[in-house]
Fold Cysteine-rich receptor-like protein kinase 42.
Amino acid sequence: MRCLTKTRSFHYVIIFYSFFFLPFLSSSSDDQRTTVSGLFCGGRSKSSADPNYIPTFVEDMHSLSLKLTTRRFATESLNSTTSIYALIQCHDDLSPSDCQLCYAIARTRIPRCLPSSSARIFLDGCFLRYETYEFYDESVSDASDSFSCSNDTVLDPRFGFQVSETAARVAVRKGGFGVAGENGVHALAQCWESLGKEDCRVCLEKAVKEVKRCVSRREGRAMNTGCYLRYSDHKFYNGDGHHKFHVLFNKGVIVAIVLTTSAFVMLILLATYVIMTKVSKTKQEKRNLGLVSRKFNNSKTKFKYETLEKATDYFSHKKMLGQGGNGTVFLGILPNGKNVAVKRLVFNTRDWVEEFFNEVNLISGIQHKNLVKLLGCSIEGPESLLVYEYVPNKSLDQFLFDESQSKVLNWSQRLNIILGTAEGLAYLHGGSPVRIIHRDIKTSNVLLDDQLNPKIADFGLARCFGLDKTHLSTGIAGTLGYMAPEYVVRGQLTEKADVYSFGVLVLEIACGTRINAFVPETGHLLQRVWNLYTLNRLVEALDPCLKDEFLQVQGSEAEACKVLRVGLLCTQASPSLRPSMEEVIRMLTERDYPIPSPTSPPFLRVSSLTTDLEGSSTISHSTNSTTTFNTMVKTDQASYTSSESSTTRTI
């Protein structure tokens, strides 16, 4: 929103400038050689968003003006924090004063393209271009070259073509400029002085082909990257093509007035843009800080920025624990010797305020052994910081999917992580003072302490859920592969969305495979586990690293298969069929608690369920809820083909 406000403000200045100043300039530019034949604006780059971009542009334009006092061609490049390269070329038949006048008009029109990162303007007497890269030796461009034809027609179908060819040949032979006239038709060809003879020839050959399209028209113009070609039924160039050195007094006065007005307008433009930018930035910062102050005012959990800065060795790279979409986490050692995790937020927008409030307001008042504890925050420094308890073993995904550590977690430890995560979610859904939906349960958001006990982290996407509501309607946010289908399709959010994510997590832990890892023979993890379940070979889905342990510990393999069934129950297509987290805990801990037969998960068509992993049999399995859901969800296996989890936020 802030960037949009800046852009709109800048455009208002341009509009004001165009309506109130350009009429005066137009009155001094009746000479047809200052007629604008083409203005082309490029896209925007990161450089054009730099606050130094406009001042650099103004300085470039001023430097070009000074160079044109002695010649008709000039380039300028300012290599500062934002680099801008500019080129001006007057046609060789123009006198110095005519050249200055043409440039003055071009200089007042080209700001219409700002803050675009590139622009070209063709006048009938000169050419002006700026870019964020050095382009001086460019001759042609399929994307940018253009031509224009007049509306008036003549009888001769080859009118202007032959004389244009002649002018182009003369220009190549005589160093880049040539004119020609025959049978009442006149033409002018001009290459930029930065081009060599061969590049000039290539550019003008293309220009001749372009004006050839203006068959039976009184005038035609080709406006290419490195040259300009024009023909007309009247003589528009000066004399025989050689420039004039005498300067008429009234034209000199006009040039002085136009240049002075141009410089004055550019200064007003720059000053207005800078002021509006600063005012907008200040208002947004005050608004954000005001919201934070009103929402978070507990002095016991406030940290001084300087304290956290020193605790992390000034955010040293050696202290970095991890990096996510909304910030970087560092290890900090407080003055009392306590280790903490300091999250350095990178946002300063409305989304940042919302996620900051979620982190602070939702979990600062709740405590559970399986939830990462928020110790406090700092909002008074140049950036906002959150302080958490330090969890030494980092995240679960590093243990499961790092080949060097995959054997560290045995089945007993994995079961403990599954159960602890379930208890943490059950507390959020019904045991805490408010009902909370996490929305982003995944292996990278489950941290492990020194005893490998799980702690759910990252509450930036969490939502508070009223006791009187059956669901929330909200924008989609979460990680692809973990999001529940009804949430993806309809935006309806309930606790069952977390249950679905937990089910995916269970399958990943038990199988040691990422949800988005695709195997051509068996499909994705969810599909593979389901197919093996229908074949009564669920044990084959378990992590091969656990094979030796299952052989040594009697009953552990059956227990693991039971856990996989619970995972399938949690990932059923219909949210009403999924168990609550309290029921999940009872299924995992009580020997005699009934475990229903799961129905097929979403994103799997019934035809895909007939696949035999060995190709020796055909399975037919009916479902009671999937058929209806599959008519609504048209997503196939491509839903899970990304190589790594990607977070979607469309709030």
